[in-house]
Amino acid sequence: MKSTGTPWLTVIIPSHCGEEWIDTSLGSLAGEADGGVEVLLIDGSPTSATRDIARRYLDRLRLRLFERCDLKSWQTKTNFGVQEASSRHICWLGVDDVWLPGRCLAVRSWIDADAEIPLHLAPCAIIDDHGRRLGSWRCPLPADVALQSAAVTERLLVQNFIAAPAPVFRRDAWLACDGLDENLWYTADWDLWLKLVARGPVRYHDQITVGFRIHEKSLTVTGSRNRADFTNQMDTVLRRHLSKLSDGSRRVERAARASIAVNAALASASAGDGGQLLGAASRILGLGPFGMYRYLRDSRILDRIIPRLRAKLAGVL
Fold it and tell me: 21-25, 224-228, 301-305: which has the minimum mean pLDDT?
């Protein structure tokens, strides 16, 4: 694809042994992206299989390939990608995720309408390993208005309701907050969103333009089987950002800790141990009517659970 000046958007794809998915993900970009969108594939695979497939798109995408076996985690690859990006606005795409029709046009309209916003949020479709739609994952935020940091932080602390491939952010805002914490294998994106939210107003666009894939090999499935570490990942982010709230922080903390208990119990149940579910349910009931409402509103638990139940029934997870 012919390059036309400085790109207006960079898409970062961190990859490790992504040869099963990369053709589909790059194909979804090729169907949408124009010459102003650059794609950075940062691949740490031990073989060239992923990169060999990606090279087929060099004439269809403004694609830059990086062979970086020294970058072990998706966090380090993504941070490297942001450093290398040529555009002011960036998004990232899991090697197993996809763009949906209309993504490029929608993102361009968000940026054109308000280029100074540090973070644009959006919902996503949840898809299975065959690309079949299992549900929608939305943010509990009003759409198309400037949202102040405190209001978004209060809700986001209860649960990470942001699907990583959906947002668009300013490169300078990412760099100013030091990007992804490479010590957080599970909650690095949640921590990042909270840091970006703190840098200024946020806009939520109620347009589904990406597909977030769930399958048995995904990190959220395999990593969450270590319950203690899984819980500690969430506790770390909560402790780090709770101090940003003043009024109502105690109520938010109670809902957030109940949410962590539910997440840990669901992870254990997914691994075959359902013994924590009753205790987690008691934590939710103990919040009282308003606290339960806050939890159900902000956790998006039905958005997250129903697609996974459908995937299990279909034998995907």
Answer: 224-228
Using CA atoms, how far residue 173 sits from 8, 137, 202, 238, in Å, is 16, 25, 12, 21
All structural domains of the chain, each given as residue ranges with its CATH number in brackets, are 9-213 (3.90.550.10), 219-313 (no CATH)
Helices 227-241/188-197 angle, 10° precision: 10
What is the rounded CA–CA span in Å between residue 246 and residue 227?
Answer: 31
Instruction: State the pTM of this model.
Output: 0.93
Q: Given the DSSP bridges, would you call strands 119-121 and 168-170 parallel, antiparallel or unpaired?
A: antiparallel
DSSP symbol at 144: S
> Which run of H or E residues covers position 103?
helix 103-113
Question: How far out from the chain centre does Cα 145 lie?
Answer: 21
For 112-158, write each residue's pLDDT tens digit: 999 999 999 999 999 999 999 999 999 999 999 999 999 999 999 99
Which token pair is 11?
């898409």
